[in-house]
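hiii so um. not sure if this is the right channel but i have a protein structure encoded as tokens and i wanna go backwards to a sequence. like what aa goes where. can anyone help
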């Protein structure tokens, strides 16, 4: 998409697409403004009220969560958990994430070839979330199966296949919702420090608590999967894998640059609540906007040589995690997970040969469907 972004940023930075019935916004400053101005631009799915309109089709639960609400409702739905995702709290999870990483890597011992996406990048985030939520060990396999169903994509374009995937997703959603409901009930009044207990003891109603648990999976899993994959993909493509392994290139800086250069979420939606002028264009109340994070993150007005992968970039103020009130709740967790996982992976395998010709690009979100690796 990057060629298209460059052209649009330059020629039609705020453009109405008749076919998709949306404004497309490409420049960093404009994307930033739209996301920061939650009074003019709502994160709700429809301009009329708080009900997500077509949630079920998009795999989102039909439950009210922070991601599709505006302040003050948003503040109520996010406030109870914000503290737990601050850098100080996230640091405490590090040993847990290290343990999960080691277990995932142990399973790969003796396997000369494997798909990095399936074996590492998908497993790790799901397992980490399961730990933070406090899913009991005996339900982990079931939990993983539900999570996979939530994000599954059709294997071909046929109507039957699409229907099958959608039915499986809705079923997983219902079963998981029921399961979260029972755990929340069990843990109400408890003192354990898992996130389900935290939610159970919050002022949110039960439906909102369930919505919160589901949101963590929906918002946190594929995104982190894609960050891990995009990092290995880019390090290999740029010939930087050894430099990162040896510390000549700082891993955390390389992760930030991966977020900018190959942002796992390329675009976000908003709806205008009032008439607004944006870069000389008249946006009307009720209009839909698509803001392109991926285009903003390569805006030459903001980044020198934006089309180049430069881990030494300083500062690197990308907006891969969004900005404003909806700034990613899991940003610090995702960064820490990526640092631990990539460090562990590169240390464990001192030779890595990723088969970039066989990579399958992914539609919608930005990542790869598979990344075959040979470590033998
Ligand atoms: C929100 C990206 C990982 C939980 C967001 C938003 C972005 C984003 C762009 C803003 C959405 C909007 O403004 O409409 C990413 C990326 C990730 C990642 C690129 C990984 C590299 C995670 C993880 C979690 C998480 C690991 C949880 C464990 C959330 C939640 C929200 C959110 C709950 C909604 C926040 C709100 O509405 O206030 N994320 N995310 N994310 N993310 Fe992430």
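sure thing!! here u go:
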């Amino acid at each position: 998409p990057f060629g298209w972004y460059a052209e649009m940023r330059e020629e039609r930075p705020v453009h109405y697409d008749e076919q998709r019935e949306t404004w497309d916004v490409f420049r960093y400053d404009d994307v930033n403004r739209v996301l920061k101005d939650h009074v003019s631009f709502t994160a709700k799915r429809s301009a009329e009220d708080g009900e997500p309109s077509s949630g079920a089709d998009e795999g989102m639960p039909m439950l009210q969560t922070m991601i599709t609400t505006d302040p003050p409702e948003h503040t109520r739905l996010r406030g109870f958990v914000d503290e737990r995702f601050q850098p100080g709290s996230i640091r405490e999870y590090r040993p847990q994430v290290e343990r999960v990483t080691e277990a995932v890597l142990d399973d790969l011992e003796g396997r000369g070839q494997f798909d990095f996406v399936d074996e590492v990048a998908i497993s790790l985030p799901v397992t980490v979330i399961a730990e933070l939520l406090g899913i009991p060990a005996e339900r982990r396999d079931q939990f993983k199966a539900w999570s996979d169903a939530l994000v599954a994509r059709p294997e071909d374009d046929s109507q039957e296949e699409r229907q099958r995937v959608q039915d499986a997703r809705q079923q997983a959603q219902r079963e998981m919702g029921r399961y979260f409901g029972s755990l929340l009930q069990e843990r109400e009044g408890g003192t354990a420090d898992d996130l389900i207990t935290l939610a159970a003891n919050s002022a949110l109603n039960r439906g909102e608590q369930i919505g919160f648990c589901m949101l963590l999976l929906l918002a946190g899993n594929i995104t982190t999967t894609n960050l891990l994959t995009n990092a290995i993909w880019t390090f290999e493509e740029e010939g930087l894998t050894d430099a990162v392994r040896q510390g000549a290139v700082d891993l955390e800086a390389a992760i930030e640059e991966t977020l900018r250069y190959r942002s796992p979420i390329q675009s976000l939606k908003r709806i205008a609540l009032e008439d607004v002028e944006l870069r000389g264009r008249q946006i009307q109340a009720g209009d839909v906007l698509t803001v392109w994070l991926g285009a903003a993150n390569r805006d030459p007005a903001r980044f020198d040589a934006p089309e180049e992968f430069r881990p030494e970039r300083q500062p690197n103020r990308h907006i891969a995690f969004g900005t404003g009130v909806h700034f990613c709740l899991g940003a610090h967790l995702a960064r820490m997970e990526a640092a631990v996982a990539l460090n562990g992976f590169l240390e464990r395998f001192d030779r890595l040969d990723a088969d970039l010709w066989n990579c399958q690009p992914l539609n919608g979100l930005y990542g790869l469907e598979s990344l075959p690796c040979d470590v033998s």
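oh and The pocket of protoporphyrin IX containing FE is lined by residues 43, 66-67, 78, 129, 215-216, 219-220, 223-224, 227, 264-265, 268, 320-322, 326, 328-330, 333-334 (CB under 6 Å).
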